[in-house]
Amino acid sequence: xxxxxxxxxxxxxxxxxxxxxxxKIITWTVSDYLIPVCLCLALIFMWFVGHNQSxxxxxxxxxxxxxxxxxxxxxxxxxxxALIERPRPFIxxxxxxxxxxxxxxxxxxxxxxxxxGIAAVVSTFNKKLGLSMFLFVGILAFSRVYVGVHYxxxxxxxxxxxxxxxxxxxxxxxxxEPMPTCFIKIARIFRLA
Amino acid sequence: MIFxxxxxxxxxxxxxxxxxxxxxxxxxxxxxxxxxxxGIIAASxxxxxxxxxxxxxxxxxxxxxxxxxVGFFVGALIGTLLTxxxxxxxxxxxxxxxxxxxxxxxxxxxxxNYFLAIKDEYLxxxxxxxxYLTKQYTDLPKNIIHELVKGIIVKFR
Lengths: 193, 157
Description:
The complex is a heterodimer of chains A (about 190) and B (about 160). With about 190 residues, chain A is mainly alpha-helical. Helices cover about 75% and strands about 0% of the residues of chain A. Chain A is built from ten helices and no strands. In chain A, helix 7 packs antiparallel against helix 8 (about 150-165). The radius of gyration of chain A is 18 Å and the shape is elongated. With about 160 residues, chain B is an all-alpha fold. Chain B has one domain. Helix content of chain B is about 65%, strand content about 0%. Chain B has six helices and no strands. Chain B has helices at about 1-20, 30-50, 65-90, 115-125, 130-135, 145-155. In chain B, helix 1 runs antiparallel to helix 2 (about 30-50) and helix 1 packs across helix 3 (about 65-90). The longest helix of chain B has 26 residues, at about 65-90. Chain B is flat. The termini of chain B are far apart. The chains are: A mainly alpha (about 190), B mainly alpha (about 160). Chains A and B meet through helix 3, helix 9 and helix 10 of A and helix 1, helix 2, helix 3, helix 4 and helix 6 of B.
């Protein structure tokens, strides 16, 4: 008897090889470089884009908050991964794998958690940018199931961890604020903030 | 790193277009700048993925997460420096006769090129560095670690 998790995984994995162009696109979107780097570029964009000093300062604090959320969600997902030790789907099932075969555990998806952490924080500062980030991270999550390196539940849990990482960032913001403020102040002297 | 460097230049161009930071634009026309920004990002991504197979595990020659982070940081830094240098050369004539002394930070780059902005700041610093430093740091928390510890104690009391 297959679980819903496995049914979705098999349904998506069955598409591998049927549409060459889709496979080609997915091998780009699943990459460790494309979507994570695009999110970081969006943070650089956010750093410079404010129309006045107060908006820019708020966005720049947002950049630090997003980096903190990324670090927290990545740390939490690695901790859970070490505790649960769920093997990758291509180890327990006969799947077509379009990506390299990662050697770490499957649950939860670390890149999805980290990217969702960034998108969740950014969406609290700028809704449009945050929503477009969520779209990109959704594509990453789909791609990782499609190529057979994660179960759907891995990426869902990764997304939950990423979104929940807002909570510690929000709770710690008052305590941590002097550090980014100091950095922004120094960057302002060099005309970079 | 070349991918990140090129993409950083592109994203700064797009941000400068929206933030109206004229001195950071590499092309004089604002519309051309945003197209250039999008183009250089697209070109960097295409070059990166089409030049060779990038989906390689870190156990067989790919980059691990730490190396990726360092690579991104260095690439972004080089991209930012290149933008500052190139835009300062291109916008060399962007020097207003009178500048409001209250304008600071990136806002100054709407009217003045980057090199001149830094040069002016340095001259103010050289004139009277004690006054300059006092002015810059009076509103900063005196001791960040003290502030952090105090914040944590207040939070959990």
